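Practice record 12: protein with iron/sulfur cluster.
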Amino acid sequence: MIDFDKIIDQYLIRENKPKEIGRYYPSEVGGCIRKTWFSYKNPKELDAALLRIFEAGNLLHEFISEAIKSEKNPEVELIKNEMPIKIEEKDFIISGRIDNLVLLRISGKQYLIEVKSTKMLPRQANESHEMQLQLYMHATNIHSGFILYIQKDNLTTKAFPFDYNQEIVEDILRRFRELHLALKHNTLPKPEAKLNEEKRWMCSYCPYKENCDKAGF
Ligand code: SF4
């Protein structure tokens, strides 16, 4: 019997490079600060199940890009289907290639589209997804965008429009500064997700739950 799960897992496995303090990733913006702190101090291999979920998201992102690019949809023009982001602050950098980000043009205007695959279409956009989009808008200077959710099992979609919001961006940069100082001074941040009812779901997917519980508040 051929083990196809093993074939997929071996294909998806990646080298886990240690992260460098002072260089942060845009995708870290909306997560629990304590979890991100642990990922620098105590890096762990990404779980095979998580790698599959990420890959399923990448495949759906490719699908959306192809649909936008298609000659059958002449009213939308795909400009890019992944983008590098770089924000240089005084003593740290936020940078990375964003592969679930689409840049398109409709009636002469450019929009950033952050594509998110989901089990079920949400009623409203997730706060951490909006934070990511705001950061991308800040870095690219393209100040209109959408978070586009696509349901995995039937490819239905729901899009939420956003304009650039300076206040949210300032808060995002403050969070990165807080993370940077906590890493530099080796002080464990508060268990942000545990303390916030709306973010508590993050703890169920957190690979550092045991470390976090041991450390207390
Ligand atoms: S268990 Fe929850 S609060 Fe603790 S680090 Fe993970 S996500 Fe954050």
